[in-house]
Each structure stands twice: as structure tokens, then as C-alpha cells.
Amino acid sequence: MTLSALSYNDLPLVLARLQTLGELHAPLRGSDGAVRFGPLPPGAQPDLTAQRSLLPPKKYLLAPSETILTYHPATGYQAPPQPETPLILLGLHPCDLAAIAYLDRLFMAADSPDPLYTARRERLILIGASCTPDQYCSCHQMPSPLPAACDLFLHQQADGLLLHVESPKGQLLREALQDLLQSTPAQQPPASTRDHFGSASVATSHEELDPNLPDWQQLADHCLGCGACSICCPTCSCFEVLEFGGLDGCSAERLRRWDNCLFKSHSEVAGGHSFQKDRAQRFRYRYRHKYRGYGQLRGLPTCVGCGRCRVQCPTGLDLRPLAERLERSTP
Amino acid sequence: MNTSLPQAARIGAIRHLTDDTALFTLQLDERPAEHQSSPAHFQPGQFLQLSVAGAGEAPISYCGFPSSDGSIELCIRKAGRVTAALHAAALGDQVAVRGPFGHGFPLSHYAGQDLLLMAGGLGMAPLRSLLLALLHQRERYGRLTLLYGAKAPEALLFRHELADLASRKDLQLRLAVDRAGECPPGLPDCRVALLPALLEGLTVDPQRTVVALCGPPAAYRFLVPPLLERGIPPQQIHLSLERRMHCGMGHCGHCAVGTLLCCTDGPVFAYSALQTIEGAL
Predict the structure, then answer these.
(1) Are residues A56 and A147 in the same domain?
(2) Using the beta-carbon criterion (under 8 Å), do B251 and A240 form an inter-chain contact?
């Protein structure tokens, strides 16, 4: 029996209990109306009906800007220490869970794991929550092969929550919450947007993109190059690396910072040569990552249909209609 | 081995090759065990990430022969922040390296083949690594030819080594320069021509020839067609691509060529893998 019931009245008790088990972060609506994942103050209620957070949860795994190495002549380059206390993220929608599953595959590949990402990921406990798609969501139109994996999943029902254990970590959490949960006659988790994820049958086209399609130039003509689409994308994970010398003249700090493939500088090498000179070309770069995947993850589309880029683009650009044409028309 | 953490090394030797390019020999602080994964154990065509503290990190092709003593040769032109800092460094200064990364030239498939190496400018650096490996077991390979083009005679890298190569009977060397100048002693004539012109009159058996190409990004577009015209199959033309590569591990997302990643799928690719990819060359 992996399903338990939780009444909405008992939710504050569950949240308080979770706060004793680790740092608890959840979606909170700010005074500006935007929803952000952040630390849940004691006694506060998360906004579990919010559509999508401004930034995706990737910020917990790959910070917008972070120190990856420090240097001192006596010690050489060293990785900064990472906190080990559990960080519980509650209220993650299936699309954001699928995005984390993608980042895990990218940054925790067996032959080349990223130690910083791995340390952060290991302290995370993921509690998913069911959601209702709006006009910007597209998970229901284009299923993703990425699984919406988590530790616990909360099905939001009219009369309460159904809690589904998804992993050994989730089982431990459930045991810690045992006295606050009720049994339920439900045998199977109810249908939800989660069902659009983890489908093995999604195939991508292996043909090269046709640079002569007019769509690329139309997209490029309307793009302001602001970078919002990749900041808010839960699977955009390009980073650039910068190093700064210390004022003592011998120490140094190396940072990585989110980057955007629609910037011309993204493909520049020493000497100033850029490999993606025009914006239409850069749109194809973005498209390939979102719908075809690259490197070891070739064939794995990364768009999870969260809709953030559609919401945030100041000129309303949208790659989806093109993807529906190009990816569905091929066998 | 943790390939995300740079390992300390020192500058053991600096040999100035031209006014802006030098051969640096680095010595790892910790000498690696024989079969241990180490930045000093590599295949020609692979690359490492070189760190100069305060300046940052840059991907650099290996230029030497894999050593057992933890030394690494890198031929570096002063082109950006990291390489400028390296050129300003002195013997004994500390640097750091990560690697090796990527796929190099598939040497094990070269046995019994004729090898045609074509280098343009700094492309001589990774091809020197390949050439040293081929000469190390010269008897394993067929005909060996090096075609090398530079801006001017004084811009030719490794001039002393080229003179040694010119005197060998088991290797054919042809040189081209964009601008006429006095040819260094001991070298064959430097033709004022573009690199592909050196193919004229060269006997090539297309079925048993592998071409290893390395040059500036723009050069490939005019280097590859004359090879195809001579009947060399696309899968036997191997070239090394340059891209922005921050991590070397397929994470940073900067080096995609189509859906291939230069850092993990390359940087050495068969032309057959690239020929349908927009912007690859």
C-alpha cells in the first residue's frame, strides 16, 4: 500500500513536521504576484495551486552564478564545501520533475559526473504535486520521454490529498508522517498530468534541420535576444565559466554562470571567431537541444512543456508549433 | 579520476617557435602511475583544459607524444586571456590541467594505411602529436606525407623538426606559404600557394589513404573538396574541430555541432559524420 490520504486541514501539521526533517522550500506568491520557490516560513502556506514558478527548480542544482573552484598557490584548485542537510522541495509539477530527471542524466552520467551538481542533488528530497494545465502548458500535447520522478507525489483532490510513495527516501518521509496520514481505499494513483511523462515511445527525428525553412528567420526577426527563454527554461543548462583573480595577487575564484545559446557570444572562441553568427542559426541550436537532444543524450527531447518560455518571451515567440510540424511529420 | 578538478603542474620548458607561439612543456606535480588515468596519458587529437590561475581555463590540443614521466607538450599561440597569461609566465610557474578529453585520431585503424597529414597554421600542433605517434611505430604504416601551410616562412612552427623530417626517406614533406619570404635552411621550398595546391602531383591511392586535417575553422571548407575530388572516401577524412568548450565533459552546452558535441563526440571527427551538418565546417 503506497497510497495514503491527507486532509487539507492537516497539511500545516505535515509542513511543520517536514520542517523538522530538513530545509523546506515550496512555491510562494510574492507581493508582486509572481510565484517563486523559496524557504517556507514557519506557519506559512505554500501556493499549491499556482501554475508555474518564475524560475524553475534548476536554480537549486545549478545556481544562476556560483563558485565552482577556488585557487590558492599552496593548495591549488579546490572545490568549495557543500551543505549536506536535506533540502525538501515541495509542490513540484510533473514537468519540473521531468526536467530534473533530464539534468540528472546530463550532470550525473556515470562516466563524467559533475561533483557540485551531484552533491546538491543528493541532498534534495522531491515532493511532486499534481496540477491543472493552462493555455501555456503543452505536456498534454507533446508527451515527454523523461519520467516525472520524485520521492513523494501529492495528488490534489477536491476532498484532500492523496500521497504516493515513489522512492526509498519517500518511504522514510511517509513513515515520519505516519500519524498524520489516513488510509485510503484508492488502489491506484488517479490520472494526472504525470501520465504525459516517461513515455518510452516518444521518438525524435534524426534528420538534419532544414536551414531553408522560413520559420527560422521569422523567429530570428522577432527575437530581442534578451535571454528570458533560457533563464526560465527548466532544462536550459548552458553555463559559461569565468575566473577572477583575488586582490592579493595570488588567489583566484572560478565561477559558472547561466548562459544562453541565443547570444552570439555563446559560440565565440579566442580570437573572436563565432560559430553561430546569425540568429536564425542560433534558433536552430536552441531547437536541436529542446527537441532532438545532443551528445550522449542525443535523441532525448528536453522540452517538458512547462510553458515558461511562452509566458516570458516579450514578443511571444514559441517553438512548439514548429516542433509539432517537424517532429510529428517524421516516422 | 575527477576530471573536473585541475591538477597542479609547472612550466618545465618554454621554446619560442614564432613571435606569438611557443611550445610549453608542463610537468605534473604528481607523476602518474603507468596505467592511471592522467592528463599526461592521452591519444593524439585529444585535448586538455589548461588553467592559469586568475586568467581562467582554455581547451588546448596535445602537441607531443604521450609520456610516462608526467610531462605534457602544448603548442600555444597568444590568442586570448588564458594563453596571454601563459605567455607572460616564467619557467617554474604553477599552472593546472584537466583531461584528457574527447576522441582523438583513431590510430588503431591507421595500421597498414597511407597517411596524409594536412596542417594549416596552428593546426600543426595536434598533427605534430599524431606525426610523433606515427613515426614512433613507422613500420606499421604505409606512405606518410605531411603538407603544411603557414602565413609566411617565419610563421612555420617547429622549423628544426621540419628540417629533420625533410631529410627522412620515409616521409614526404611539402610546405606552402601565403606570403613569400626567405625559406629557413634545410627545408624544402616553401611554395607561395594555398594548402590544397600542395596536393597537385601527389600520388594518392584513395582507397588506402587516411587524411588527417587540422587547420583554422574557415580552412576546412576549401581543404575537404579537393580530397573528395581525388576519390578519398568521406569516412577516411579525419579532421579536428575547434569550438568553445568550457567543461570538456558534455555539460556546458557550448560546443554542439548539429546534435554532436565537439568535446565528447570529437574533437576529431570523420568528415562522413559532419557532411550533412549545417555549419560543421
Answers:
(1) yes
(2) no
CA gap A326, A204 in Å, rounded = 9
Q: What is the pLDDT of residue B1?
A: 63
Give how many domains chain A has, as a whole number.
Answer: 2
Q: Where are the domains of chain B?
A: 7-101, 107-274
- Cα dihedral sign, A103-A108-A114-A119: positive
Fold of the domain built from segment(s) B107-274: Rossmann fold (3.40.50)
In angstroms, what CA-CA distances link A232 with A55, A101, A306?
A: 5, 17, 10
Which range marks the domain in which residue A227 is found?
A: 214-328
The interface predicted TM-score of the complex, written ipTM, equals 0.93
Which of A76, A208, A259 minimises the CB distance to B258? A208
Predicted confidence band of residue B161 (pLDDT cuts 50, 70, 90): very high
Cβ neighbours of residue A81 under 8 Å, at least 6 residues apart? Answer: none
Query: From the CA of A169, how many Å to the nearest CA of chain B?
Result: 27
pLDDT tens digits along B23-49: 999 999 998 888 888 999 999 999 999
Give A237's contacts in chain B (Cβ within 8 Å): 251, 253
User: Do strands B237-240 and B209-214 pair parallel, antiparallel, or not at all (unpaired)?
Assistant: parallel
Residues A252, B54: C-beta atoms closer than 8 Å: yes
Residues in chain A, pLDDT under 70: 1, 202-203, 329-331
Fold exhibited by the domain B7-101: Elongation Factor Tu (Ef-tu); domain 3 (2.40.30)
pLDDT of residue B111: 96
